[in-house]
Design brief:
The chain is of the alpha+beta class. The chain contains eleven helices and twelve strands. Strands 1, 2, 3, 4, 5 and 6 form a six-stranded mixed beta sheet that branches. Strands 7, 8, 9, 10, 11 and 12 form a six-stranded antiparallel beta sheet that branches.
């Protein structure tokens, strides 16, 4: 399936349908072939039972053996698992009912919405963001395509992913995932001024927040004000009313986040944002016209086969619309 998919993409490239300048990436949930009423907690599963000796379960258990001893802090342990298709994820993404599902990950060239790569993952945001890295690397290696810019939604706007994209020389047209805004009327981190040379924050009252430089959870650095400064501060009620001192967390990739923020108001970003809708239309077309909303195969390998087949069909339709010409007789009939 992979070889056929790449052959179709190359045919699209030969016809000039792939410009290779702007890519967009997104994921859509496809319901797994697993009942949402039969989910169980992972510690309740007996994988040695005869009815569990299936290919899908074998893939899942093999994947557990291949995982690192120390799982990523970004990956959460699933609370519910499917006995029949344990590789699928328990999800309620896209405001749908809770169900087991897979993430259909598409990366398109925004010129003509040709799908340049496709990947299957459990329907989890973490796995979908990781898949985008795989697709970018694979597209460059297999097809010689590397975009100048990448468009995606806020789910991809983590500091870690933005830094990775920028390090590869790709401009991220991606909104930053920012949870620092306070909703309780207190000062947010944006109300503090960061001095990069001194590596300190200055609060609205002019006091400093300093850091030891220790990285917490592999992602943030803590900046803390002095207790005596906060205790006597007239702004304490709007800054840290329930704590003796104010503290701020700064992403270790905050510089990359700042670069992405600076791009948001540019005309190029607005153009990419509009073109990003083309990947969403790919999903809508697949579900509406091809009635593909639920998986027929189980396991990640089954999902890969189905997703590759879907992408092949959609790219072939795009290719056919470009190269097909009506026979002379049909043209003559229309003219008559």
């Amino acid at each position: 399936m992979r070889q056929v998919f790449e052959a179709v993409v190359r045919a699209c490239m030969e016809e000039g349908l792939v410009k290779g300048e702007g890519f967009a990436v997104d994921a859509s949930v496809m319901e797994a072939d697993a009942s949402r009423y039969h989910g169980k907690a992972p510690d309740e599963m007996d994988w040695s039972a005869p009815e569990r000796q299936t290919r899908a379960v074998g893939e899942f258990l093999s994947g557990l053996d291949d995982e690192d001893e120390e799982p990523s802090a970004d990956r959460k342990t699933p609370k519910v698992i499917s006995p029949t298709d344990p590789c699928s994820a328990w999800t309620a993404k896209a405001n749908k009912r809770v169900q087991f599902g897979y993430g259909l990950n598409y990366m398109i060239d925004t010129e003509n919405a040709v799908i340049v790569d496709v990947e299957a993952t459990p329907a989890r945001t973490y796995d979908e963001v990781v898949a985008s890295k795989t697709m970018l690397d694979r597209t460059e290696e297999q097809l010689g395509l590397k975009p100048e810019r990448l468009a995606a939604d806020t789910a991809y706007g983590t500091g870690k992913f933005l830094a990775w994209v920028i390090d590869r020389g790709i401009t991220p047209h991606i909104p930053v995932w920012d949870k620092s805004k306070r909703e309780d009327g207190c000062y947010s981190r944006d109300d503090f001024t960061f001095d990069r040379e001194r590596n300190v924050y200055t609060c609205p009252a002019g006091k400093l927040l300093t850091t030891t430089g220790k990285v917490h959870a592999d992602r943030t650095i803590m900046y803390i004000a002095l207790t005596r400064d906060c205790r006597a501060c007239p702004l304490k009620g709007k800054c840290t009313p329930n704590m003796p001192f104010r503290r701020l967390r700064r992403d270790i990739n905050e510089d990359a986040r700042d670069i992405a923020r600076a791009l948001v108001d540019t005309p190029e970003f607005a153009k990419s944002r509009d073109k990003r809708k083309k990947v969403e239309m790919r999903f809508a077309h697949l579900k509406t016209h091809h009635r593909f909303e639920r998986m027929r195969l189980r396991g990640l390998s089954g999902a890969r086969d189905e997703f590759h087949l879907a992408a092949i069909v959609q790219n072939l339709k795009t290719l056919a619309s470009r190269i097909w010409r009506p026979p002379p007789s049909a043209v003559a009939g229309c003219n008559a």
